[in-house]
Amino acid sequence: MASIAKDVVIRRALQEDFEAVLSIGEMYGGRDYLKALYLPFIENKDTYAVVATIQDAVVGFSMTTTFDGGLTVMSRASRVHEKFRGLGIYHMMKEELEKHTRLKSKAHNLVVNCDCGKANPEYSEDV
Known about the structure:
Layout: H1 2-5, E1 8-12, H2 18-22, H3 34-43, E2 47-54, E3 57-67, E4 72-80, H4 89-104, E5 109-111
Protein name: Histidine n-acetyltransferase
InterPro entries: Acyl_CoA_acyltransferase (IPR016181), GNAT_dom (IPR000182)
GO molecular function: acyltransferase activity, transferring groups other than amino-acyl groups
């Protein structure tokens, strides 16, 4: 994990990231709600979404949505490209989302939805 951590950039997700986020891979057996809801989520003032990039390629996505006037935060739609699973990228995104939550929310409740994939032992540092 430490070997690629320096190459991973976590930044706020943009509308322009739509295709790249969807290209991370099929989720939920082909019933991924993000295709229909990505843009509304990105435009929602109560949603904070991030992407993980390596060499400007999107390899991960995660977001949180705040409810109950800021008292509850729900993690949603997280995903990491199959080639990069098991390398700590999800945890890097989660740390950024938690930092944002601590700064911007008065949340007492955190609802986490973890769609964890299997690690890929064939990862090569030649990205």
